[in-house]
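User: Continuing from earlier, I have the next pair ready.

Assistant: Great, send them over.

User: Here they are, in order.

Assistant: Folding the first of the pair now:
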Amino acid sequence: MIDLLFSPAFTLWGSPTTWLEIAAVMISLVMVGCNIREIHWGWPLAIVASLMYFAIFWRSRLYGDAALQIFFALVALWGWFQWLRGTSADGSALHVTRLSRRGLALVVGTCALLWPVTGLFLKTFTDTDVPWWDAFPTAVSLVGQFLLGRKYLENWAVWIAVNLVSVGLFAYKDLWLTVALYAVFIALSVVGWREWKRKLA
């Protein structure tokens, strides 16, 4: 079964694209569509897509991104609960809101701290050939996932930054279908930002 999942379905720019990558891309697109529309079913889809990408990234020696997928799968359970039962500070049902200035400063500071710490860990304890580039989406995605789970508008800006770096990273690893997916993610993040901003207004 494993051999079938990793068998090439077709070739893009000289690199094989596996059936597993195709399935992960399709599920991921539906997941983001659900997130934009605040449909809670995006969270279980996130679990499935994350487990698929764990296998894909591990095989490509992107250990930071692979470990991140396990985190995504776990935090998706929390996010699903938040969207179903979570409440805002005033006790009302969770809704789209903005970060305060203090919250924004915490987000920037956390990203600035997590990136080098993650990069140093990957450089020291793994055989990855891109520790610092692997570390950026790994670290910053942790923050983005929290913001998404709590329905902060700024989560979309975080995902734009993550997706921009990921496009270059996955191109370097010849994961061309995933490159295309993350390029679409950039556009969808802009759509998500506009849609959530409209709801906030």
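And the other member of the pair:
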Amino acid sequence: MNKLSFLILIIYFCQINSYAQKVKNDSLAIRETVADYIEGWYSGDTARIKMSLHSDLAKRGVLASRDGKGVDLVMSSYSEMIDWTGKNPNLIKENKVLKSDLKITIIEIGVNIANVKCVSNEYIDYLQLARINNQWKILNAIWEFNYQEIMKMNK
């Protein structure tokens, strides 16, 4: 192998290694952001949930309508989420919600965007994150009740 081919090969492997490290770092940061969101919610910790949300958050819940004939959309903003979180009891501290019951699954990571599924016994959230000023923030969320878990608990 000539020297130029060898040099190109080394540069190629260095770039792959660098990209793999970047994805690993992003994955950890994204998980941390989503953990701040869901654990902040269940612990009533407004500081943690503030760190996780973008100020232009658009959050929508898709819920069965009261008459059972369709769905209702419930919309929430950044300030509403902060306010509601502050009114929550610390269910994690009271052992009513276990951190081990909170599941975070990264669906995809792009350069500056990511999709994540977050599941608790009560909720299923699909979260869209954006890297803004080198920090991952939840920009969009759509959620519904975790009907399967709720039905299990009511049996």
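Worth noting for the second one:
The chain has four helices and six strands. The chain has one domain: 3-153.
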